[in-house]
Amino acid sequence: MNAKRSDKIATGVLYAVAGIIVLILASLLLYILVRGIPHISWEFLTSPSKAYQEGGGIGIQLFNSLYLLLVTMIISFPISLGAGIYLSEYAKKNWFTDVVRTSIEILSSLPSVVVGLFGFLVFVIQFGYGFSIISGALALTFFNLPLLTRNVEESLQAIHYTQREAGLSLGLSRWETVMRIIVPEATPGILTGVILSSGRIFGEAAALIYTAGQSAPALDFSNWNPLSVSSPISIFRQAETLAVHIWKINTEGTMPDGIQVSAGASAVLIIAVLLFNFGARAIGKRLYKKMTSA
After folding, report:
1. Alpha carbon distance 273, 203 (integer Å)
2. How far is 61 from 206, CA to CA, in rounded Å?
3. Residues near 21 by Cβ (< 8 Å), separated by ≥ 6?
4. Nearest CA among 29, 15, 115 for reference residue 72
5. Are 256 and 51 in contact (CB under 8 A)?
6. Cα 69–82–135 angle (5° rounding)?
7. Measured distance CA(233)–CA(225) in Å, rounded
8. Angle at which helices 59-85 and 133-157 pack, to 10 degrees?
9. Which residues are listed as membrane-spanning (predicted)?
10. DSSP of 124-148
11. Rounded (10°) angle between helices 242-252 and 59-85
């Protein structure tokens, strides 16, 4: 058997394996979407859920998921940006940076249920926040930091060193060079990572069961007092998210139409995560084209 034939066989095997994996994933997604999309309607997306009776929706859970995502990103993004800038632009190769990078790798490999139990012990019990949005957001911050920090660091390191030299040669300080030249150039990659991590947070369930809670109290959208538990912007209220709601429906069985609600909620969750992923790619490509053509 000559080298060309061996190469063709190996390439064919790789294509076949990749095709099988794509087929399995596509079949799983299509199965969820086909079962769930017929149950999605405007009423389903906006009405509150119901227990022990039919006709419930996912309005409050969907709002909770989006609001929790917003609070989590407000907390985690500045920390990740600072850590990524430090590791990329300022950190020297010594034992301290090795410890930091090792800690990031350990955090990224932790199961989400472990992060949830950590959040339960520290934020829910020790800090006294109880089951609340702030407890869930702080727990998800630990879950999200490794991915965001590595994304920021890699995006900054992808910028050619001549950009840094150009800034320094113009009389800018190192910090000014980073903030005015390097970070803006790395914005497409950073934004892509932020959107991808948002999709990961949006679909998280295990960490939120023990921190954000498993109930979705009715919200009064005329009440904007952040200290009121019925206010939609309160961070101290319980907030069952969409992913937790799906888990709860399938474990408790208190809804007569639980199968339909679960199928519809699962389809909404899948569509949202797909939008996050495809949106990240589209926005990243558009920003990159604008910056390269400018």
Report:
1. 7
2. 15
3. none
4. 115
5. no
6. 35
7. 8
8. 40
9. 12-34, 66-88, 109-142, 259-280
10. IIIS---SSHHHHHHHHHHHHHHHH
11. 130
Q: What is the pLDDT along the chain (294 residues), one digit of tens a residue?
A: 577 788 888 888 999 999 999 999 999 999 999 999 998 889 889 888 887 778 788 889 999 999 999 999 999 999 999 989 998 888 888 888 888 888 888 888 888 888 899 999 999 999 999 899 999 999 999 888 888 998 898 889 888 888 888 888 888 888 888 888 888 888 888 888 888 888 888 888 888 999 998 887 888 777 787 777 778 888 999 889 999 999 988 887 778 888 888 899 999 999 988 888 888 778 777 776 776 665
Cβ 167 vs Cβ 155: under 8 Å: no
Q: Which of 91, 205, 108, 207 is nearest to 156 (CA)?
A: 91
Q: Which residues contact 80 (CB under 8 A, 6 or more apart)?
A: 144, 145, 148, 149, 151, 152
Token digits of residue 52: 């022990």
Whether the CB-CB separation of 138 and 144 falls below 8 Å is answered with no
What pTM was computed for the model?
0.88
Cα(224)–Cα(236) distance, rounded to whole angstroms?
13
Where are the domains positioned within the chain? 39-290
- Which listed CATH number (3.10.129.10, 3.30.750.200, 3.40.50.300, 1.10.3720.10) goes with 39-290? 1.10.3720.10
221 phi/psi in degrees, rounded to 5: -75, 0
Which one-letter amino acid corresponds to residue 263? Answer: A
For residues 201 and 265, give the distance between their C-alpha atoms in angstroms, rounded to a whole number. 16
Alpha carbon of 11 to those of 8, 21, 56: distances in Å?
5, 16, 51
| CA-closest candidate to residue 236, choices 220, 261, 256, 212 | 212
Instruction: State the DSSP code for 125.
Output: I
